[in-house]
Amino acid sequence: MVNLFVYGTLMNPRIVKRVTGTTFEMAPAELKGYKRVMAGTGYSYITPSEGSRVKGLILYHIDDASLARIDRYEAVGELYDRCEIDVLVKRRTQRAHTYVANIAGLRRLLGEDIDFDVRVEEYLEEKLEILLDEDSPSELSELERRAKSELLGPTREELAKAHFAHPADLGYRIHQVWSDTSSPTLQHISENPKARNYASAYIALAVRHMIFNQLERKVRRDFAEAIQMPSLYFPHTLSDLITLVFMNQKHSAIQQMVGHLKGDRFDPKMDYLDYAKTSVRIADALYAMEEFSEIVDWLQSHRQEGHTPLGAEIEFSNLGAIAPNAKEGQDPIYDGFYYFHDFDLAHRCWLLGGHVDDHRFPYGTSGNSRGFLEYAFGRVRVSGDLSCPTTNDPWVLSQLIQHASDFAGLLPHSLHITMQIEDLHFDRVTPPEYLYCLLLLGGDIHPDRNGQLREWRIYNRELKDDYSNLHFTEENMRLSLRNDDPDSGTASDVCSWVVEYKFPRLRKDFNYEPFIMAIKGFQLGYQPRPLSSRIRVLDDYAREETEAVVQWAEDPVPVTQTAIQNFMEFVQKGLLKERAGRPAHVSLYIQGCLDEIELQLQHVNREIIEYQIRNK
């Protein structure tokens, strides 16, 4: 047990209880030989200063667990150091601990080049909660505060990051957001009979994502070191995966809890805040640190970090390829996600990059259209097409694809894999058989109703646009924000070349790790030119490959063993030079993936041969 001298926000008993879960006896106290500094940033701190004094409170008998929580709240070692000092209480000296500024840490925080790590993020979020409470029109209960914070969605994170660019404006920005950002309401749904027909399905989807959001925050709080991502990558990648694994494991229990608390149905008497409260309650009831610890250990033991930044987008629809052109009512559950924005789902699904993809551009956050529910991992903005790489780990990306597919609860449709490439050379014609090898690994090859074998995504014209361009592989540029003002929308100084493999079919219970390694190795080893571009007009560029692939998709034939072996040599070559001419993975892992890639190629090729024999 220790006594603690406090002089800032911890003088508020309500904040102390929120941080520690308990209250402590307190008394006025004074610290000599220090001065209190307000840096204009929303943070107060004390530093040694002869002849100065600081008035505050002494909190008595702080137990070890509570002290640890306060240490975390004050970002000890990063922004503050905890020291022993003598304070005056009723003119008598008493020994206590207090938090003294870590000047180097504060300078890093307030400087231009800042490493935005999880501890600082958590520290800022605690401060955000305090200021949000102060700006609230009335006293909120703990549950109401957390529910309203949930409804703010990614806004709170954007505020925290904006603080690095403009630290002195934090209080103003929070006041502006709190007053300008109204909590979503469901009143308009009650007045819209068409939307009400689908309301229960949308509510259930929103509640599931809010539970996910709440659990993910707990993971980031309790496993900060284990889920840390390099600054180039989406900071929530590992915590997203851990939470998805847990929620899929607990799927039945979660459904029962949601149903018991009426979180899976639309009730005109309930508003969005009520459903957010239900989600918070369920997340609190579910969270078991020891169970999450097992998932974290599993993740840590399987990591296979490489060098190439990777990303993925996955699409879902109960209607399949016709989703963007569906008629009203064709989808009896979601009506093609036409009411996605009416239920403010972009702010519920933000951690997974959830939005409606109607195959039009650009993406927005308003307006009704039918399309696919898409998870674009690494998407950093609810509005606009700004993103960062998801991971450099093929195993992590494959697991994220699999577990997000299970979590969505919809029929899977398509998968896009992106690679960020430092030096693109798009001058090499690709032999069609190498493209056929890619389709053996990630395509959708099966007979039609008449028994004719097809590669369905191409044959069904799912990859062709109105100008007959085949979006099989595509060059693009990734726009992202880094140490920038999120309000500015400026991203021109952070543009990266990416190659996007857009042809794969999304399938549940499918291991995409060998496929990801195959396209990474092939891209690096052969450097094939893309068949389409998002950033320039290609005219007749790559038509030779396009025509060959389209013809093969109409009537797939076996790939020659020579082509398979040549393809494998380029994959191996790329993997062995991934990191500045050297391998980025250990040799045992690379060889294991190469074996799996060839096994898959031979397996699907053999199925085509057997099909031809049966249908002679």
Describe the structure.
This protein has four domains: 2-110, Hypothetical upf0131 protein ytfp (Roll), CATH 3.10.490; 118-180; 187-376, no CATH class; 423-474 and 513-614, no CATH class. It is built from 21 helices and 14 strands. It has helices spanning 13-20, 64-73, 103-110, 118-135, 142-151, 155-165, 170-180, 187-190, 193-196, 199-222, 237-249, 251-260, 272-286, 289-302, 394-408, 432-442, 456-459, 513-526, 543-554, 561-576, 587-614; strands spanning 2-6, 26-38, 44-62, 80-89, 92-101, 310-316, 354-357, 372-376, 412-420, 445-447, 453-455, 473-479, 495-501, 532-533. The strands form four sheets. It has a seven-stranded mixed beta sheet with strand order 7-8-6-9-13-12-14, with helices on one face. Strands 1-3-2 form a three-stranded antiparallel beta sheet. Helix 4 packs across helix 7. Residues 110-120, 164-168 and 482-493 have low confidence and may be disordered.
